[in-house]
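Reading a protein record of the kind used here takes only a little practice. The integers have meaning only within a learned vocabulary of local backbone shapes. With that in mind, consider the following protein and its fold in token form:
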Amino acid sequence: MRLWLLDLDDTLLVDHAVSQAVLSRLGEEVGVEGFFPAVKRWAEAFFREAPFYPWAEQIGHSALEALWARYSTPGLETLAEWAWPFRERVFREALKDLSGPQERARELAEAFFAERRRYPLFPEVPEFLETLRVKGGIPVLLTNGVPDLQREKLFGAGLGGAFPLTLISGEVGLGKPDPRLFRMALCAFGVEPEEAVMVGDNPERDIKGALLAGLRAVWVDRGHRPKDLRYPAHLEVRDLREALVLWEA
């Protein structure tokens, strides 16, 4: 495999577990249990009501990300204005559900916005990327989301210079699983589909898109997304280094 298309969130970068940990701790501070699922549930419900929701769904921007995205990308000023009332409403309803102090909704929303800015990599990532580099593989980042947040994660994790090409759905106007996004990467390096592999944790976004584009697909099971039999990956791994068996494939 010459070209390695890599997802960011929960493939290279720990994402879901960080949000869960921060929200659980904030819930403990105000004496409520189950704060993470309650916030997630209300965020997803209210996010679906947003006027830009079809666009967000297209580029793969999630409700939980809307709780801490800065929306500083030019053209997203309307989202920046929308965001704080949305966040306060989400936290208020979550606290109400759990009989918590609703008057602290804004405080907790601001605390999550600040404390969520953590960007830990999975332990095997540095070795995996270094092995690709030594072997002459071409790593390309293929990530869904709004540009400012995805680039903040990328540079915050120390991966700002790790990829010769970074394709962010919110910048190019196409999101996974649209096969055109995958083909952009192929065209950029003159690589045929059979010479490329997509590595990601999301069956509906990463694996489906790879299969539609004719690429090999590696599903990274990070333990919080179920396997989707509709989109069978060529390889299933729990550690990115296990995917290197495809190097000679």
Remarks:
- The chain has a mean pLDDT of 96.
- The first strand starts at residue 3 and ends at 6.
- Residues 77-97 form the longest helix (21 residues).
- Residues 119 and 156 are 6 Å apart (CA to CA).
